[in-house]
Predict the structure.
Amino acid sequence: MQVETAGVISLSPLGEATGLYHLVLTAPQIAKESGPGQFVMVRCADEQSLDPLLLRPLNIFRYHPAAGRIEIIFRVVGRGTDWLARRRPGDSLSLLGPLGRGFSSLEKYHRILLFAGGTGMPALFGLVEQEGKVGSSTEHNQEFVLLYGARTKEELVFLDLWQAAGVKVLTATDDGSAGFHGTVTGAAEAMRISPGEFDFYCACGPRPMLQAVQELMAKYGIPGELCLEEAMACGIGACMGCVCETVHGYRRVCTDGPVFPAGEVKFS
Amino acid sequence: MTTASSLETRVGRVTLKNPVLVASGTFGFAREYERLFPISALGGVMVTGITLEPRAGNPPPRLMETPAGLLNSIGLENPGVHKFIEEELPRLRDLGTEIIVNISGFSLDEYGRLAEILDKETGLAALEVNISCPNVKKGGMTFGVHPESAAAVTRMVRQSTSLPVWVKLSPNVTDIVEIAQAVVDAGADALTLINTLSGMAIDPEKRRPVLGNVFGGLSGPAVKPVALRMIWQVYQAVTVPLVGMGGIINYRDALEFIMAGATAVAIGTGLFLDPFSPLKVIEGLQGFLAKNPEETIRDLIGAAHCSP
């Protein structure tokens, strides 16, 4: 973990009117230390500006230790991300990271189900692309199935990259414009998963989705991990501001998470 | 030439190598920030508020960003004094800076017991008595808003420890000077001010308060003018040293607090904009003093009160 001044290599909007952006940065230290499910805090204001005040936690989509680069996908949801969307190549950004307890090693699992919802998708990509190598899935004799949900077709991004990593991709949209018409858990039920078909799952997305995934997978008896997204102040575990309720009491999303074992987080 | 000693300052019996502390509740027990910079660079650390028993804190959401400010309702989540002594204090003692322990009670007796328990420990510079947490329903702020109860808490802590007693004042009062005078008369060695300003936010879509606790405490640059005014007023009314805090993010903010009458300052929310902000403030103060080699930081305390 460190503060690193990152350089913007590229920033491109994804799809039409989705509010999604793809940001590529030089950040050699963070690229070197990152693992799947970890995040960075990004200062999203001009140097002297006090608004917005806080850094924004953003999932790391891809990290390339050799090239010293990281990639981020974000959605414009407020003043901070709006500022970020207006950066240009050559601009500098102040980053704090990599942060958080990411996903556990999947080495001992063979058939892994991934659930992605909206901007939760990027947090999962590191699971299939480690050490800069796409397709670690074949190396460990693993099979990945991604259930990727979004509001509409335009918001399903980088499907080709997932497919190139050897992942079977199934999509779901709220409006039925692509894939299953409904939620990722609806799509999972429609798959008619048989006992033993999957031995682990990883999920990242909005809280209602994670809650539904956790309930469904518990029903199937499949263990897994959930990656939460939460507003944060310090991002490093000091302020106790980003806690979620778990079976062990309140836990910090920034340092005890953002990845929690399935069954620990209480959503209601 | 500016030497390190030009930044040295004394809060009563406590000598600080420089006037820059970090505020309670924003720095945990220094474990996290220790990974980013040497804590020994700081004038001191005011550790997260400790209570007699462990506290789970308030239900989330606990944070809401506001224009140039931050609302929080953490609710004093902490492991309790015994676990603090066992698991945190040994490491804190070795950090090479002054350790000030913030304590909160829910009765007079609890404040007394906390002071008594911590009095037996070595390596503490002072106790900061929180009579002003806006985020717990019972105790906390209710002590801090009346001169009589504020004085009673101070007296209780004073009687229970030989450590310097710093009392943290609430801005959520009609007349902060009245409270300040009452706690100084009751034996406070120093005052720290201000705690957060009570506030709230509502989510128009959900038609509900944003914070799980409904109310929270506002901090950050948005509160700085209020904090500064209160330092100014209290400085004119009491003779004990003041530790100023409330929206300090750069060395110029720190200078304002010092010139209003603060002997030392603390940075809290500023850490969240930039974890290195305390170090940058120290550097900035050094640079400012370098312009006038005759002057030390002590010469600037209350400087704005003197007419030219």
User: Anything to note?
Assistant: The first helix of chain A runs from residue 28 to 33. Chain A touches chain B through 29 residues (CB under 8 Å). The CA atoms of residues 33 and 263 of chain A lie 28 Å apart. The longest strand of chain A covers residues 2-14.
